[in-house]
Automatic annotation (TrEMBL):
Residues 3-84 form the NAD-dependent epimerase/dehydratase domain. The lineage of its organism: Bacteria, Bacillati, Actinomycetota, Actinomycetes, Micrococcales. This is SDR family oxidoreductase. It comes from Curtobacterium caseinilyticum. CDD domains: SDR_a7. Residues 116-139 are annotated as: Disordered. InterPro entries: Epimerase_deHydtase (IPR001509), NAD(P)-bd_dom_sf (IPR036291), NAD(P)-dependent_oxidoreduct (IPR051783). It comes from the Bacteria.
Length: 301
């Protein structure tokens, strides 16, 4: 299959491209910078120069493909409105290009806020619709194209997709711990975060592209949930700093933008995903990765 990948040089995207190539697929990757283009070309990827706001480039990439993986996102926490609007416009452009083709469109999403008091499941619909909602309601917007002959699939990722070189939420928390000299958790730290190793997530995305029917919600969840105080303890041990509870009222000041997220229950299951695709995670756990030094790069900055 010839697959067009947005976010091809990103954290999850780069590992997914590796998995696609190893499975024998041809890949065209969207690249914004010279460095990203060079990295993709070195792997044998065809490069399409462009960015997430370049809707013409997105349409060209989708038109020339046999399937699309949309893994890019601006992740601009200082301007969420623009991030959400760009995400929605990108999904609309990609979906429109695939109308009537029965080709797959995998849209990246997450499990956050799907079920705040219990583990989220694949049966939980996303409550987000409209451009002003998180990710611009892109999961539901993608599913709008199912009735127009697009095999739309939602790939929901754990709040931490971890591994060596990760610069996501766990790296950010480790950076805060390094800067403040204490690895904190919010309140009692009993709320849980789901986790998955990045190579397992990449394999899941590829399997979903190949096998999942239209309208499927896939959960890239290897561990249903790790208590945030255990995450903080592992970070503290790895960085050699003490561990402490942070009052919820002080969370935003201590952690910055991630304070609200770190106080949330973001656990999830993947039973339906595993049964559908035969997917079984094999990578290390989150706490194993932290203990093994996967976030040592934070201390070296």
């Amino acid at each position: 299959m010839h697959v067009f990948v947005t976010g091809a040089s990103g954290w999850i995207g780069s590992h997914t491209v590796d998995d696609l190539l190893a499975a024998g697929h041809d890949v065209t990757g969207l690249a914004r910078s010279d460095a990203s283009a060079a990295a993709l070309e070195a792997k044998g990827v065809t490069v399409l120069r462009g960015h997430l706001d370049d809707l013409d480039a997105l349409r060209r990439g989708a038109d020339g493909s046999e399937g699309v993986l949309h893994l890019a996102n601006k992740h601009d926490w200082s301007d969420q409105a623009a991030t959400n609007a760009a995400e929605r416009a990108a999904v609309e452009a990609l979906g429109t290009a695939l109308v009537g083709s029965d080709r797959p469109l995998v849209v990246a999403s997450g499990i956050a806020a799907l079920a705040p008091d219990r583990p989220a499941t694949e049966h939980d619909p996303s409550p987000f619709t409209g451009v002003d909602s998180p990710r611009g309601g892109s999961e539901n917007r993608g599913f709008d194209f199912v009735d127009q002959g697009v095999r739309s699939i939602a790939a929901r990722f754990s709040p931490t997709t971890h591994g060596v070189g990760d610069h996501g939420f766990i790296a950010y928390l480790a950076g805060v711990a390094q800067e403040r000299g204490v690895s904190g958790y919010v309140g009692e730290g009993t709320n849980r975060w789901a986790a998955v190793h990045v190579t397992d997530a990449a394999r899941l995305v590829r399997l979903g592209l190949e096998l999942a029917p239209a309208g499927t919600r896939l959960h890239a969840v290897a561990e249903e949930g790790i208590a945030t105080r255990d995450v903080a303890a592992a970070i503290g041990e790895a960085l050699g700093v003490p561990v402490a509870s942070i009052d919820p009222a002080d969370a935003a000041g201590h952690f910055g933008f991630i304070g609200g997220f770190f106080a949330m229950e973001m656990s999830g299951t993947s039973g339906a995903t595993r049964e559908l695709l035969g997917w079984e995670p094999t990578g290390p756990t989150l706490l194993e990765d932290i203990a093994a030094g996967a976030y040592a790069h934070v201390a070296e900055r």
